[in-house]
Every structure is written in C-alpha cells, then in structure tokens.
Amino acid sequence: MPTLDDLFLKVQKPSRYTGGELNSVMKDRAAVDVRFAFCFPDLYEVGMSHLGMKILYGLFNSQPDIWCERVFAPDTDMESLMREHRIPLWALESRDPLTVFDFVGFTLQYEMSYTAVLNMLDLAHIPLRSADRDERFPIVVAGGPCACNPEPIADFVDIFFLGEGEEVDLEVLRLYRDMKKDGTYTKAAFLRRAAQIEGVYVPALYEVSYNADGTVAAVTPKDNAPAVVRKRIIRDLDTCYYPESFVVPFTDIVFDRAQSEIFRGCIRGCRFCQAGFIYRPVREKSPEVINKQAHDLCASTGYEEFSLSSLSTSDYTKLEELLPMLLEWSEKEHTNISLPSLRVDGFSEELAQKLNVLRRAGLTFAPEAGTQRLRDAINKNVTEEEIFRTVTKAYNAGWTAVKLYFMMGLPTETLEDVAGIASLGQKLVNLFYQNPDRPKGKGVTISISCACFVPKPFTPFQWEPQDTAEQLAEKQAHLRESVTTKKISLSMHDNTTSYLEAVLARGDRRLCAVLEEVWKRGSKLDAWSEHFDHDRWIGAFRDLGIDPAFYANRRRSYDEVLPWDHLDYGVSKEFLIRESEKARAATTTPNCRQQCQHCGAACWKEGVCVERR
Amino acid sequence: MSVANGFYTVRLVFSKTGRAKYISHLDLYRAMTRVLRRAAIPLWYTEGFNKHPYITFAAPLSLGHESVCERMDFRLTDETVSMREIVDRINACLPEGLKAISAAEAVTKASDLGYAKYRLRLSCSPAVLRAFLDQPSILVEKKTKKKGGVKTVEIKPHLKDVSVEDADGQAVLTITLPYSNDMTVNPTLLLTALSAFAGAEVTGEACRLELFDRHGAVFA
Question: Domain boundary residue among A230, A253, A272?
Fold first, then answer.
C-alpha cells in the first residue's frame, strides 16, 4: 500500500494535506485524554479561512488534556487515490486516521456542505448513521449556524452544539473524559448525560411524529432529555478565550489574514438574515482587548493583513476609538487593516484618508431590493440617498466601478420591485454623467449581482414559500429586459442551488434518507458548482417519494409545528410573527439600539439588551 | 558589509526536508515573508504603491525534492542584528522541515549560478543505473522557451562527479548537474531518461546537496 507521502506528489497543492504549517499544534498522543478531529466539510482553502474553527482549535489545544487536529474534505484527485488504495481520511497534525479519535466534530456553515459531511465520514471508514456506530467509533458532533435546524442531518450526528461553542464544547469533552476515567462510559450513557447540559441537542433522544398532511405533529423527548434545548452564548467577550496565534497555511486560501472579532450579533434585524437573529444579543469587545489581540496575532503569524470581523463593522460603537489604536502600530509594521462591510458614510475625512477606506472597502453596496417599499418590507434600512451620497464621493475620488448586491424572490416582491433593481443601477449611471467632477475620459460600470432568496429558520420569513423556478425565471427575464444600458453588467445566480438550500434549511428528519441517497449517487462537494448536479438531487427525491416543493415552496401557517420548534435561540415566535406581519405591511422596525423590540434575547441580560441608551 | 541605497542584502542558507518538501516555490515565498516578519528583524520594504519586503530565491527547488543548501536573499535596513542572531531568530519562527543554517552578506549574483549537486535514492538497481550512465550518449527531450516546443539535448557530457552506491540493492546516485542560465539539467529530467532506458518507471527521492557558481566554487 502506498504511504501518504506517495500520494502527496500525485495531487494538486499537496501542502493542503501535509500539515506542519506555522503554529499548527503537535502533542504527545500518550499525554492527552481526549483527541478531537475538527472537520470542515469543504476544501482546505475554504475551511482554513474560517474564524470559528481557529477559535475552537486554539481553545481546545489550550487545554493540556485535549489535542485538537484539523481535517478537510480532500479534493477529487486526492479522494480517488484514497479510495483506490483504501487509505482512510487522516488528521493533518498526527496523520492518524479519524477512527482513533474520541470525537469527530463538524462545523455546519452552509446546507450544501451536508453531503461533504457524509463523504468525509465514509472516507474515514466511519459508519454514517449514529445508530450504526458503537463504542469502537468516535462520537460525531456538529455545531455552527446550520445546527439551528439540524433535522436533515440528525440521523448522522450524535450531538449538536447550539449557539456559541467556547463553553459548552469543553463541558461535553470534560464529561466524556470523566466518564472514561471513572468507568461509567458507554455511548448511550454519555449521550444521556450530555443532553442535560444546556446547549446540547442529542437528536436520538427525540422522537418525531408526523401528521397525515406531512407536517410535524410533535417532537417528544425521552430519557429525561429537555423538551426545549436552548442555545448557549458567551456572556463576556472580553474575558472569553481568543487565540493568540492562527495556523498559517502554505498554500493560498480564501481569507489569508489575521482576524479580530469585534462583536457578535447584529442590531439591524434585516428580516431575511438568519445571522441577524440567531446570534443575538449584540455583545461588543472593548477596543483595548481587540487592539491587543490583533497585535498579538500579527506578531505570532507574520500576517501582513488583518481584518475586523463582525456582521457589520460600522455598527461597532467604539470604531473611532479603536482605529487610531490599531493604526499606531500597523503603519509602522507594514500591516494593512481591512474593514469589511463598512459604511463609508460616517467617517471623518482624516480617518477615511488614513485608512484609504474608499480604496479598501471598494464600492460595494447591498441594497438587497430594488424599491424602497421592498427594502422596508425586509427591514433593510438603506435609502437611495445614502447610496447616492457615498457613490458621489467615490466618483469624485476617481472611482468608475460600483458593485450592487440584490436578492430576488423576496416575500411580497412584484415585477415592479424587480424592475427597481435595474432603475437603481440606471440612476447610478446617470449620477456619474451628471457629476462635473467625474473622472474624465472614462466610462462607468455598475455591476449588479442578484442572488435568489432562501427562507431560513428563526427569521420572520421562516413561514414563507420560496419562489418556484418558474417564478424566478420570469423575474430574471424581467430584470434582463429592464436593463437598457451596457453600462450595467448583470449577473444572476443559478436558482437550482438556492432551491436545495431552501429544502434543507427548513427540512425535517425525512431528508436524512435523501442526503444519504444523493451522496451514494455521487454528491460530495455540492457547494462547488462544478460538482453540483441538480438532476441527481431531483432523482433522489423522486425515487424516495419525497416532494422537495413541500419544504421549499409551501407557505406554513403560524400554528404549524416547525421541525426546529424544540430548539430555542432566544428570539420568540411571537416576535417573529410580529415582524412577519410588519413585513407584509412594509413597515420597518427600529434597530436594537434605537428601540428594544422585546425579541426575547434579553433573557441573557447581556450586551445591547442592557446597554444604557 | 555595506548599506547602499538604504539596504543591504543577506543570503540565508537553509534546509528544506521532511514535510517541508511539499511546499511549492510560490508558497515558500509567502511562508518566508511571514517568517521574516515574525522574526522581527529590520526588513527593508520596497517603495511604491504596494510595499512589500524584497525576497528572492537563487535556485527554485522542485516540489517534492529535499535540500540542505537552499539560498534565500532578503534586504535589511541596517546592521543592528548580527548574522548569528538572524539565524537564531529565523529558526525560532520556521515551520517543521525548514531550518536556517547560516547567513552572510550576499556575494555572488544569482545569474552566476553554475552547478547543483544532488543525491538521488532510486528505485532501480545499481547495475541498471551503471548501464544507463555508461552509454556513450544520453539524449533527453527538453522543453524550449517557446510554448510547446521540445528539443533533443545530449546531456552525457554535462554529468559531473558521478558516484553510484548500493543501498540494499537500490542505487544511490550522487551527481553534479548544470544549473545556469545557459543549461540546466534537473533530476526529474534524468529520471525520465533513466525510466525510458530501464523500460519501467524509475522513481527517486532527491536531495540537493550544494550549489556552485560557474567556476565551481560554493555559491556564496
């Protein structure tokens, strides 16, 4: 049998598989009690860019009795070699196969990675279904945003962690260690006890029954598992663990830089945005802590760039305090600061110039909808005037290209709203030619990118049907016809992926069989368009007698039992219903700092919920 | 030592073995940039729109080959840190498989490179290797600079300081090959010719042992 080294020279970018990067953590196998294989169900370049993985990798390895290693989905060339020679999936640090680990943990960042989870388990020679794994196999755990409705992959995972993992993950690993030590460990006993920890959802301890119409009748706990599992949050981000170093990859990855988290949650409450609801309440880190963490990270990694990470940089209340602190050392040390999702508007001229915000932030807007009415309905509080102001500044500074992001298929959307996308683009074109200070001798390009809306759990739109393929096609055609100038370049996403996202995002346990079937038929890296095969999915649905439209295109009533109703993310159903009704009336909701909407997240008595206003 | 134009150039000798042999040339450049930044030595940055440290490698190494004689040049703004200190600080920051051996002010220009010495642990027997080397002529196909162009080159006269050892029936070849702007024969080319001669694929683990200038002196 060939060794791993023999394989490395036969594949593209072998440093994705070798381990040994700067700051990767090696430990003595014999000196640790718990071994954790942290799996990202996508390629190395994607997974290594993910901040959550870096935090948990650092946190676990800061514990002397835990060794956490990294695992990524192999690219197709490596996978076929592994399958040909029956070489099981290994962890990068020790190069040990996953079967020797105590835990195999997946982070679920997007629905289209679910088949990669199955494929990685299979490549590791681990049975896919929880029920088929006895004491000889690792405990399979999963967390991340998709864990807020984990039902479509519930049969494959032993434990889901709901919410932020820094505390609950360690509590579960310690329980495992202690039960192993005192001899009380069996998989069943461990899962029963783990289910008593807040933030732990053990799907095998819940029975799901269905009504004749296919909707969920009830989710019934057994073995004393709690009827409702509440997510966990970190109360104080200043004292919470944050890594002092990141693993620095050799190969180029998507986000190859240091990242400093500045706050969690989002005050905005855009009604389509799941992140805006499931990460509540907003909790900020203090500028002193961010500054120190950023500087330490740059020193330990040698990164020449770092970015401030959050859902909306501009909403950080102490940004004007933080940036000068960062600039003091970053300029000297030739380190660039990147400020994603920044509103260029509110900046002082001096700071804007120092940060070169216009150059860095580029000119990207996400109005999401083409008319003010629809923007009000989705609570995206951006006005045309704000966009015009910033774009004018940019034109004055020599910019000739603007990017706009929109969604299509939003609830209450009409063809008029769709045409509004084109007319907003047209207005920006006109703004350019009306501007006497515009760059001379150059044309303007307005790039419009249009994604398809996917209704998600724990949002006010969780009851909404997704537009059908026919409806979306009609709208896309209408948008194409509404654009009458070559100055606007239009790119519209393929809606077949969004359709499956809509199915999986709000699916129930009956989809586990579909996932397994579609994986058997060859799906494994569905997040990549070159590997995604829509017909394969549709074929699996058809052959199993499951109608995907039931999940994607059906309007739910407010009193239907939703597959995730036994999970509690702090936001109450009553609040989501209020927001849903306001959307239908195209009424906006003030943000958390302007006026509390009593969403429920105040139950933690933290962050913006207790800020003095 | 001289600080002209606001910088002076240091040449680091380092080894690249084990896991590090899978780091491609481009990735090595990126990794070393970060190593030098971590090492907190007074790096000189280029001027202009996109400021970056100045780092070059005299002789890029093929992916999968090991080396104990790599050369990396970089520029420092001043001489406040000794060569010994530079080596120590860099070693404290290097990932597994990379190790700094020595540092000195760069003397020879990269364009004056002449030869490279390799050790190749081969999958064929010493007898096959000797028969291959004893041929009166060894012709290989080499890519030309023109896109898609191939020419046949006689390499026999270019093989220098050849020695063949027997390691449990496997051939170990130590050889010095041309490595210059005019003519380069890399070990992979030799392996291709050897495989054609043997009528079966011959694989080999390559390690570069030393670099020489065009006069045969160690590249300093």
Answer: A230
